[in-house]
Design goal:
single chain, 237 residues, alpha+beta, NADH Oxidase, four-stranded antiparallel sheet, globular, binds flavin mononucleotide
Length: 237
């Protein structure tokens, strides 16, 4: 279950660069608190902005947070007193109201794998929630990025934003850093907006935690599965 690129490359010989970064990347959920300079993080975002976008509209807006700002955000979210399972996704819905089919199975498999690694039993709801709450502190990362998009834009631009996000995670991977994309912030946009200056025309889409992985925390040993090609690939000759 360790993050290990080799099993995910069909032929690891001679493959480096992007293929290796894609295969090796996995979400990091515990970080060393320091070790990344703001200038290095800015360079990653600058490169990530080479992402393609329809009409080259470049619809992403990024807020780069260091530890003091991260702590202010985490405190503000906790001060809402709204637990994540009760939080309202009122600005945009990431997930469907009801999970179904394979999506539901995969989501549950992720939860089971994560909690098994952490020794959290099925009924230990408090421990599960405590683990989830670590999101709000960007899992202790030295750098947090909040991403927003203009609410006047359409679904197409959200795809573009996704490409930017993926670039960030791969560029972090290339540098030997870890990252985690986090939708968990979205329902708390009201508490976060005034702290970082997100305007009413912007939708808070997600965060990205960036930093050096804490190698001693078992949470970072999670290696998620992927469905076999047959479940999602149709060859049309
Ligand atoms: C848009 C998006 C939002 C996510 N939100 C969260 C989150 O709030 N908290 C979290 O721990 N992981 C979050 N993840 C990480 C996913 O759980 C993870 O990508 C997935 O389980 C696959 O695992 P991997 O990233 O290790 O390959 C998110 C991922 C994406 C792409």
């Amino acid at each position: 279950m360790r993050c290990d690129p080799v099993p995910y490359l069909a032929d690891p010989r001679g493959i480096g660069g992007v293929a290796e970064a894609v295969a090796a990347r996995c979400s990091t959920r515990a970080f060393a608190r320091s070790g990344i300079e703001t200038a290095e993080a800015i360079e990653v975002l600058r490169l990530a902005a080479r992402a393609p976008s329809g009409g080259n509209m470049q619809p992403w807006q990024a807020y780069l947070l260091g530890r003091p700002a991260i702590e202010r955000v985490a405190t503000a979210i906790r001060a809402t007193g709204v637990a994540p399972h009760k939080a309202e996704w009122d600005d945009y819905r990431y997930y469907p109201e009801r999970f179904f089919g394979a999506y539901d199975q995969r989501r549950k498999a992720l939860g089971r794998a994560l909690y098994a690694l952490l020794g959290i039993e099925r009924r230990e709801v408090r421990r599960m929630r405590a683990q989830f709450d670590r999101n709000f502190d960007f899992f202790g990362a030295p750098i947090g990025v909040l991403l927003t998009i203009d609410r006047g834009l359409e679904k197409g631009s959200w795809i573009d934003l996704g490409m930017f996000v993926q670039n960030v995670t791969l560029l972090a991977q290339e540098r030997g850093w870890g990252s985690c994309v986090q939708a968990a912030f979205a329902p708390y946009h009201r508490a976060i907006r005034p702290l970082v200056g997100i305007g009413p025309d912007e939708v808070l889409v997600c965060g990205i935690a960036i930093g050096h992985p804490d190698r001693h925390d078992p949470v970072n040993d999670l290696r998620t599965e992927r469905a076999p090609n047959a479940e999602w690939l149709r060859l049309v000759g």
